[in-house]
Design goal:
Rubrerythrin, domain 2; alpha+beta; 98 residues; 2 domains
Length: 98
């Protein structure tokens, strides 16, 4: 069963509850666990953990160890792959050029 978030319009309290998928579009008939009011609506909140650094590079993520790793990998791979490994080490983290 999925978890849905609910918010009390009276006091602003937000909580989650396990509900059947078949009940997801039905109005919530539960009382607010905080104040007891029946002014409860489905809450769609922000996802702060989903935010990303648009300039994140492999080197930034690993604290500078990415280039060291690529250098070590080059010692054990055929030379035809070295250009791609160098390209991976020089990523800017930007998807599109402006």
């Amino acid at each position: 069963m999925p978890t849905y978030d609910y918010r009390c319009e009276a006091c602003g309290e937000i909580w989650d509850s396990f509900e059947m998928i078949s009940n997801r579009d039905k109005p919530c008939k539960e009382k607010c666990p905080h104040c007891g009011e029946k002014k409860v609506v489905r809450h769609i909140g922000e996802f702060p953990s989903m935010s990303t650094d648009s300039n994140l590079t492999p080197n930034k993520k690993t604290g500078g160890q990415w280039n060291d790793l690529m250098h070590k990998v080059k010692n054990y791979t055929p030379e035809r792959f070295h250009q791609k490994l160098d390209k991976a080490s020089s990523k800017t983290g930007k998807r599109w050029k402006t």
